[in-house]
Amino acid sequence: MTVPISLEFFPPKTPEGVTKLAAARAELYALDPEFCSVTFGAGGSTQHGTLQTVQAILAEGRAGVPHLSCIGATRASVAATLDSFKAAGVRRIVALRGDLPSGAGSFGEFRYASELVEQIRAHSGEHFHIEVAAYPEMHPQARSPEADLKAFAAKIRAGANSAITQMFFNADAYFRFVDDVRAIGLDVAVVPGIMPITNASGLMRFADNCGCEIPRWVRLRLQSFGDDSASIRAFGLDVIAALCERLVAGGAPALHFYTMNQAGATRALVQRLRG
Ligand code: FAD
Q: DSSP per residue over 118-180, as a string?
């Protein structure tokens, strides 16, 4: 496999988490990622941690890429965040709407990620390469796949450069989404977001929450392993390596790994793919 890879982390909440993540990053840098992105908590919970983690990555000589969500934000708060990213040396951002914490808060001054992309371009010009989210199996709140495709197109037309997908296990959903994107005249890179399998119950919960289908045969196998984590990891490695191979053979331009701040599973996967 020769395509570039990128890695995603979340900001640790404890000093111990900071130390563990630094060790995981050091191990994963051996894979030579194109960039390392750091998620952004809607509602303010981890936003300072995002910048701190990105600064640590930049200080390690790697491209640190903050996510930025706009739900609950104001134009002034987004402008201030963009200025702090620029001052830190950031050149790429993952721009998202985010999700309202359940039952709390209001949308703020932005309704959709396309409005955030517009604001980033209006405030910072071409300084940042802008990534946006894509949903091969449709965003759970979209009215239809067509409506979701229009929403995706709005983000690209507002100035986004490329996209990273939600995790998925069905390569056909990805290929169909890319075909649909090309059919409406957009030639942006759509990079598959890959979730290594390390923990069956956590994975199933997360997939259900974000509208990602786990094939029945995969779910059944995972359930049958119970708490035998070595078997879950070995099976997960086979399933996800086969998915990645199919995606790359079918034209995926790069792979983005949701590391969950753990080095082992992503490293094993990339090493397997690179032979
Ligand atoms: P949008 O593109 O705005 O879409 C949200 C919904 O609105 C969709 O259903 C869309 O179809 C619909 N829509 C958009 N525009 C219109 C319109 N004009 N009219 C009608 N409907 C419209 N969340 C975080 O909080 N922090 C993170 O760091 C984070 N990182 C992520 C990274 C990736 C790669 C991905 C795939 C997701 C990430 N998320 C993150 C989750 C994301 O915030 C949620 O999936 C959120 O629900 C949608 O964000 P979006 O940017 O895709 O929103």
A: HHHHHHHTTSSEEEEEE-TT--TT-S-HHHHHHHHHHHHHTT--EEEEEE-S-HHHHHHHHHH
